[in-house]
Specification:
It comes from Thermostaphylospora chromogena. This protein has 463 residues and is an all-alpha fold. Among the domains are: 67 residues, no CATH class; 88 residues, no CATH class. It is 63% helix and 2% strand. Strands 1-3-2 form a three-stranded antiparallel sheet.
């Protein structure tokens, strides 16, 4: 098994692209432990599909994505248009159930990629299998995959990009382009991925890969980024990934520590100082009608620009307070009992039994007519739903185990840097980055898990 995964492959040498599909076939046929875990993960996802029909469709995010797919127009918000392109491609099926089935398949593929790379790098089969288990078997991933949300596509592109880059020590021009395409594609799904392109390029430079792979990665990333920017400019008049709103998010982050006596903002930003409204999470300041940002009088672009300026000013004036807020909120991920943040949310164990109608909204009828008539009500169906409700309490990666994965990955950075550095740095960025620019969310922890697990598994790799 190890010889087949690590030896030279004529197809790979010719094309520069790792032959992962043939490798997967060998894995399933030769490794009974991983095959059993994979089959279990597939059956649990099937039970999720049968137990919750048709899919989770959330107001506001899901409806925004679906509307963008129907109109094939990027939204003028902080959400880029990559995920709506996938929804548009699947639109002929007229089924959000088909969308989530596809996403469940991507979830399985992520686990396979983690396993394959670790085996190729010489990790024992049981270690590689263990590293893939969180992605394959944690019920939190089932729920995310079963929602019309961008996260699963984002995770797949990120993991596929990292695995493609690490598949062989020598990075060819063609493989560099593939890596750039994947990571650039992830950036047009969620903008938090944009700096990871630079992380990958820096990794190539430090490795001494030469200028050709570095140039190739930039070229590959430029294709989706430029295409999205041109698409956005065609509809909204400016070359961008997103519209206004990112400044407001960063402003909300600072509301947990900002002291205007220290910041001393100029007069035009003074109205954005804390106004006495106190929330239990930074993200809540975005939505509270009485928060300073929502009492601001002016157009959205001006508001966003001033909010960004205020936030940067606050971070520079109070850097230690900012770092403390980010560290404090990130640590929520490592609690044994999931902590609700904000308190009104359900932090974990989100599967239940019942009927959940979508709140009436101006897009509901349009989406029913032009995408899927079944959107509007989510129903649980026994016995499948009961199985998943029970399983979620067993199949959950508790916080201390997440911390252990982080620490094992950090140890692997020093012992197996060629394999561990890139996934660990990328995973840590995906873990901390969302907290640094807005707030902690249990949902945003999940994209970091497969990459950090990959880094942790590298501790047992031979190279």
């Amino acid at each position: 098994m190890q010889q087949e995964l690590s030896g030279e492959d004529p197809q790979q040498t010719a094309t520069g692209v790792p032959p992962m599909i043939p490798a997967f076939g060998r894995v399933v046929s030769r490794n009974r432990l991983f095959a059993a875990i994979f089959v279990l993960a597939a059956l649990l996802r099937l039970a999720t599909v049968l137990g919750y029909r048709p899919a989770w469709v959330y107001w506001f995010d899901s409806f925004t994505y679906l509307n963008s797919a129907i109109e094939l127009t990027p939204e003028k918000s902080w959400q880029p248009g990559g995920y709506p392109i996938l929804l548009w491609l699947l639109r002929p099926l007229r089924s959000v159930a088909a969308v989530v089935v596809f996403q469940h398949a991507l979830g399985l593929a992520i686990g396979v990629l983690v396993y394959l790379l670790l085996r190729r790098r010489g990790a024992p089969a049981w270690v590689a299998t263990l590293a893939a288990v969180p992605q394959l078997c944690d019920a939190s991933f089932f729920r995310l995959e079963h929602a019309v949300l961008s996260d699963t596509l984002f995770m797949f592109l990120m993991v596929a990009g990292v695995v493609t880059l690490l598949w062989r020590d020598e990075v060819t021009f063609r493989r560099g382009v593939c890596v750039g395409l994947l990571l650039g594609g992830a950036a047009i799904v969620r903008t938090i991925a944009l700096p990871t392109v630079l992380v990958a390029v820096l990794w190539l430079v430090v490795r001494g890969a030469g200028w050709r792979p570095v140039l190739a990665a930039f070229i590959g990333a430029a294709v989706p980024l430029s295409a999205h920017g041109a698409w956005y400019a065609h509809h909204h008049g400016s070359f961008s990934l997103t519209g206004s709103g990112s400044g407001v998010l960063l402003w909300a982050r600072t509301m947990t520590f900002a002291d205007c006596d220290v910041i001393r903002p100029p007069a035009e930003e003074a109205s954005l100082c804390p106004n006495g409204v106190t929330k239990d999470a930074a993200s809540e300041y975005v939505w509270d009608p009485n928060s300073a940002i929502n009492l601001f009088r002016g157009d959205e672009d001006t508001r966003d620009s001033l909010a960004r300026s205020f936030a940067i000013r606050a971070i520079l004036a109070q850097p230690l307070d900012y770092l403390h807020a980010v560290a404090r909120d990130t640590s929520i991920a490592f609690a044994w009992t999931p902590i609700a943040h904000p308190k009104r949310t359900t932090p974990a164990y989100g599967f239940a039994k019942g009927v959940w109608p979508v709140p009436d909204n101006p897009l509901l009828e349009k989406i029913q007519q032009r995408y899927d008539p079944r959107v509007g009500v989510l129903r649980s169906v026994d016995p499948y739903a009961q199985l998943i409700v029970w399983y979620q309490y067993v199949g959950y990666l508790h916080g201390p185990l997440k911390l252990l994965i982080v620490l094992l990955g950090f140890a692997a950075v020093w012992r197996r840097p060629r394999t561990a550095v890139l996934p660990w740095l990328t995973g840590m960025f995906l873990l901390v980055g969302p907290v640094a620019v807005l707030d902690f969310d249990h949902r945003y922890v999940l994209p970091a898990i497969p990459l950090l697990s990959l880094a942790a598994g590298a501790l047992a790799a031979r190279r």
